[in-house]
Amino acid sequence: MTLELKGVTKVVEGEVHIHPTDLQLEKGTMNVLLGPTLSGKTSLMRLMAGLDVPNQGKVFWEGQDVTGMRVQDRQVAMVYQQFINYPSMSVYDNIASPLKLMGKSSSEIDKAVKKSADLMQLTAMLDRKPLELSGGQQQRCALARALVKDAGLVLLDEPLANLDYKLREELRVEIPKIFEEAGSIFVYATTEPEEALLLGGNTAAMWEGRVTQFDLTPTVYRQPKDATTARVFSDPPMNFLNVSKKGTKIMFGNNQSAAAKGPIKALSDGNYIAGFRPNHLELNAHGPDGMQFDTKLIVTELTGSETFVHLDHQGEKWVGLVHGVHNLELGAELKVYLDTRHVYIFSEDGKLVAPASYAVAA
User: Fold this and answer.
1) Which of 79, 109, 115, 133 sits at a 20 to 30 Å CA gap from 9?
2) What is the largest CA-CA distance in the chain?
3) Cβ distance 319 to 278 under 8 Å?
4) Cβ pair 154, 48 in contact under 8 A
């Protein structure tokens, strides 16, 4: 069982929503579409589902061209962030509705509904109407309806955004297992890099209607092909710095330098762009080969056990995520440090030329 997109595009009123895209998804896999709002995730899912027809290219399901086939005639289940339930029907009947349309027996329906409701923690609410539920419970009802359909292709468009933290974490673990056991192709759209890492499987990084990289999730995270993918797979986005390689040194800032080690050591001399994630900036020195930067503190944000520090480095805006709660004076001059093992090196046109040392070793 495969879903294959070959050169599909989508243009709406002259605006390109999806640039030419090739993608192949396999049976029993979880595939995350990761990108910011308006990156094309929903547009791509609608092409997969048959809700939209591509302007160019074709969509194949198990080798069959289904480009013009109606969504009703495909094995597709889809759940949006803005959940849809039938307000006049009970939760039980909402969940059972696709099975009734499929002509399942009463006993089959009852067994499947109760199993799905138990997973979604809705067993005590099966007799209620959707409007008697909280927003999170209503979303769980929509998810449960997708679960019972036993579809070959399951598309979830930011489905957990309205759920409480505890249930969201539980479902991130449980939902992929269910669909993988059923042999479904699972596609999950999210704006959150952390969610993509938790879900695992494969990730397609998306930016302005393009899939910039599709691979195993850890590979896309640790070895992004370009600066755009690195920016997508970092929250807050990856920080960047112009550097040059000269002999055994990385040159940066005002005649500052650090030892070129790991993959960086093999690079030819020249100008590059260094990238590093916010969680790799530190407030304390990290060995003799680290990089030190003089910055100005713009603002801080406390997350509980960590602190976001927004910095100005020679006109460039950086974000650091440091452990602990820090009482820092806004506007103060602040020295920050970076271990060179955590530095990615991109060419001046943004292509990855040297992954971070820790990413290669991981």
Assistant:
1) 79
2) 76
3) yes
4) no
User: Interior CA angle at 305 toward 297 and 198, to 5°?
Assistant: 105
The count of other CB atoms within 10 Å of the CB of residue 116 is: 24
Buried b (16+ CB within 10 A) or exposed e, 264-286: beeeeeeebbbbbbbbbbbbeeb
φ and ψ at 326, to 5 degrees?
A: -120, 130
- Token pair listed for 358: 């820790």
- Rg of the chain, C-alpha, whole Å: 24
Residue 314, classed as helix, strand or coil, is coil
Whole-angstrom distance, CA of residue 22 vs CA of residue 19: 10
Tokens 């006993």 belong to which residue?
Answer: 107
Closest CA to 179 of 190, 189, 167, 188: 188
- What is the Cα–Cα distance from 157 to 283, expressed in whole angstroms? 38
pLDDT tens string 295-348: 999 999 988 788 999 999 988 999 999 988 888 889 999 999 999 889 999 999
Of 146, 151, 158, 135, give the one whose Cα is nearest residue 33.
158
Question: Running DSSP on this structure, what letter comes out for residue 349?
Answer: T
Question: What is the CA angle 53-176-134, rounded to 5?
Answer: 85
Q: From CA 128, how far away is CA 126, in angstroms rounded?
A: 6
Tokens of 32: 């995350």
